[in-house]
Specification:
By secondary structure, this protein is α/β, with parallel strands linked by helices. The protein has two domains: 211 residues, Spore Coat Polysaccharide Biosynthesis Protein SpsA, Chain A (Alpha-Beta Complex); 127 residues, UDP N-Acetylglucosamine Acyltransferase, domain 1, CATH 2.160.10. The protein is built from six helices and 32 strands. The strands form six sheets. Strands 14, 16, 18, 20, 21, 23, 24, 26, 27, 29, 30 and 32 form a twelve-stranded parallel beta sheet that branches. The protein has a seven-stranded mixed beta sheet with strand order 5-4-1-6-11-8-12, with helices on both faces. Strands 15-17-19-22-25-28-31 form a seven-stranded parallel beta sheet, with no helix packed on it. Strand 2 and strand 3 form a beta hairpin. The protein starts with a strand and ends with a strand.
Length: 357
């Protein structure tokens, strides 16, 4: 048996404006919140206890797991604790099993967690870090190994010593959590364990893994999963798609969405309760729930938050719109436009990379 701690308390500042109204773990991946994918993997472990460490917009996450009837314990941080502090907090206030799995809540993965725990126990590790080789490791913590053993960690190095990075998935002997020092697992806790000669192992994972730290990462993950999961396209059973609409795979059409005649969808994710008006075109984009797109409007390489409304004959190019934004008829948003939530855009934005506060 194993206990599980999921870290989901951060601000996700690099994902703004999307994260101004929605915590990162509730951002949808192919129509489902990231957290649901994580919890599905966790439940296959049949863990003794699952703890969700929360702070920013904790009430929204609590509401979600309650509605989904997830068997989790929510722990609300009273102050900023980083990703290491919650481990000690939970260790001191709850009874954990001998082994604790720790997961960063801002990454998508398809790792078989049962195999990770099995590896940890069979190799007699005090701690295990899951590592993955990536093309550009400079954005991540880089792991230096000797066989299966961790020798050093370098956080976001300008000149990486390798391309094996820290995925934010860990296994610890629970008794070690009382030794947590500082707020960072990678910068404080792992170096402490190395200095005290603990046996830290590295489990190498080669499957899909993505840190959705930035909007482009978030969009890229959805596109990758579109190809992996729905190469021929997916339309929810209770959606309405006109026979005269053109859907070019891969695509994802969520529940209760209506796609009108002469509209086009290409390589895009369209969430639940959306409406794509006659002659509209959505390509290389992600639309969250409740988005309305007017007649003959074009959405290209953009992310639209919940309940965004786009008028007739509008054009959005490589733009990111927060929740509840309204774009009026005939408006152009040029490349790189970012619009904060609850804004009305009545005039075109011709300048590139404009931020509408």
């Amino acid at each position: 048996m194993v206990s599980v701690i999921i870290l989901a308390g951060g601000y996700a500042t690099r994902l703004r404006p999307l994260s101004l109204t929605k915590p990162k773990v509730l951002l949808p991946i192919l129509g489902r919140p990231l957290l649901d994918y994580i919890l599905d993997e966790v439940e296959r472990l049949e863990p003794k206890g699952v703890f969700l460490s929360l702070r920013v917009m904790a009430n929204k996450i609590v509401s979600h797991v309650t509605m989904e009837r997830r068997n989790v314990v929510t722990v609300i941080e009273k102050e900023r604790l980083g990703d290491a502090g919650p481990l000690k907090l939970i260790f001191e206030n709850y009874k954990l099993n001998d082994v604790t799995l720790v997961l960063n809540g801002d990454v998508y993965f398809e790792t078989d967690l049962r195999e990770v725990v099995k590896f940890h126990e069979s190799e007699g590790c005090d701690a295990t870090v899951v590592g993955k080789e990536v093309e550009d490791p400079r954005r991540f913590g880089v792991l230096v190994t000797d066989g299966i053993y961790l020798k050093d960690v370098f956080e976001k190095p300008k000149i990486p010593p390798g391309n094996l990075v820290n995925t934010g998935i860990y296994v610890f002997k629970s008794a070690l959590l009382k030794e947590v020092n500082g707020q960072s697992i990678a910068r404080n806790f792992l170096p402490h364990l190395l200095k005290t000669n603990r046996r830290i192992c590295v489990y190498r994972y080669s499957g899909i893994w993505a840190d959705i730290g930035k909007p482009e990462d978030y969009l890229e993950l959805n596109f990758r999963l579109l190809v992996e999961k729905h190469p021929k396209g997916f339309v929810s059973e209770n959606s309405r798609v006109s026979e005269r609409a053109s859907l070019t795979p891969p695509y994802f059409i969520g529940e209760r969405t209506e796609v009108r005649e002469d509209s086009e969808v290409f390589n895009s994710v369209v969430g639940a309760g959306c409406y794509l008006g006659e002659g509209s075109r959505v390509q290389d984009s992600l639309l969250m729930n409740g988005v309305k797109v007017g007649k003959y409007s074009l959405i290209n390489f953009s992310i639209l938050g919940d309940n965004v409304t786009v008028g007739k004959r509008a054009r959005l190019e490589s733009s990111i719109l927060g929740d509840e934004v309204e774009v009026y008829d005939n408006v152009l948003l040029n490349e790189g436009t970012i619009v904060l939530p609850n804004k009305e855009i009545s005039e075109s934005v011709y300048d590139r990379h404009k931020i509408i506060l």
